[in-house]
Amino acid sequence: NPGDYFQLPCVEWALASRTCDKLCSAEDCIPGTGVYLRHGYIYSSLAGYVLRKNEGEELPVISVVRETETQLLPDVGAIVTCKVTSINPRFAKVHILYVGSTPLKDRFRGTIRKEDVRATEKDKVETYKSFRPGDIVLAKVISLGDVQSNYLLTTAENELGVVVAHSEAGAQMVPISWCEMQCPLTHSKEFRKVARVQPEYLQA
Amino acid sequence: MINTGPIFQGKRFRAGPVAWVIYFNMPTDTKRVRGPEVSQSPSLFSCDPAAVLPSKGPRADGRRRDQVDVRPVFVRCGLVSQAKGSAYLEAGNTKLMCCVYGPRETDRKDETDMKCGRLTTDMRFAPFSCPERGSWIQGSQDKDFSLMLHESLQPAICLHKYPRSQIEVSVMVLENSGSVLAHAVTCASLALADAGIEMYDLVLGCSMRQDGTSYVVDPSYMEENGCSSGSCENQGGLTVAFLPSLNQISGLQSDGDMTEETLTAGVRTCIEGCYKLYPVIQRALTKAVCKAAPSQSES
Lengths: 204, 299
Known about the structure:
Chain A: Belongs to the CSL4 family. The structure holds two protein chains of two kinds. Chain A is mainly beta. Chain A has strands at 5-8, 11-17, 22-25, 30-31, 35-38, 41-44, 48-53, 61-65, 79-87, 91-99, 102-113, 136-143, 151-154, 161-164, 174-177, 180-182, 189-191. In chain A, a hairpin with a 6-residue loop joins strand 16 and strand 17 (189-191). Chain A is elongated. Mean pLDDT of chain A is 80; it is low at 1-15. Chain B is built from seven helices and eleven strands.
């Protein structure tokens, strides 16, 4: 019902649209997410709220969103948070838990190959010294993989790598350098490929 | 000729296990079909003839013949909390519910498709749904219905937006009171919309039963399975799955013996029945969307 509007700067909300509601013609708006284009008109493909945004281009972008987080699939180039499940001299297998900041309802599987762990000295990498099972890792998707393999991820950047890890004694470790973490209880150092997290995200 | 009769007839066989081994290793006679030792009259096993329904006059529940008179439908979305999307539909006494899971990683690696997602449909009848108690194991009728459901739903979903994933739709029929496939299609597309899966359009289903020269739309269980006392020609049923806004048919299932004109007229009748359902389904979907986010509508 286009009569009910809530005016915000640059954003207009209209009431719910149902699947295959004709929203507008293709000349008035640019199609965003949750809509499809057919015969010169834009139709919604979701049941949700219509969002019309003016993003600085001549035409507003129209999209349909559902308030429950839309199921995101890990896309190439997305930063994902994953948990290491098993390691191998050649690669590490992970479960992808979050895409960006939205949690996934179902776990997708990913692989971090030995040569994608670091940017430098790729052949001298030992996965045992970079990850351990149970570590939480920030990684980036480089490829959707093919039929046989899982998503391919990389940690070859300063901001990517292990974020949370537990030592063999069971305590959560504190990062010392880009390749070492220290356990606060036993003061033993363990090797990990540590991510450089921005200071504002670190909590005491 | 190996006569296994006397051994079989329960003479006490005291020789022990060795003798039984000899019995089982004896070559069986494959050229003759031996009947049972004890025979019973076949009339003990025959089922009652199906109730003969009159082909004229009003229908049992008061609806009219030869008119597009579908049963009023009660629909609710989001009843199952564990599933991504769900819907419950009641039409007369037919009750069914549908759950949608996905998109999730495909279970079997060799069936992963890189370009688009996969749709898996599963339709089950609860053992208490039909007048005769069934079993929990899927029979052949369930598999047939699952395939037809798959065929009807697949054109409507934007599978290319979900590469490497699978979407599972599972319908459970709680009470079968006629035209189950049609209502399953409607219920499944509602559950898919409730789950937030992108679709080109909702798929609605409608079925009819042709009985000689007259037809009934949205038949009940008795009308679907009863045989008519009248003519033998033009007997059959038809189920149509229809995309209303795009004006396309995605599934058509018919059985029986009908002429070409009857079939085309029947398809048009079912399409009209789908159009009658459309506003109800739309309203239910709007209610579900508004209920999920009341904050937006307040502002």
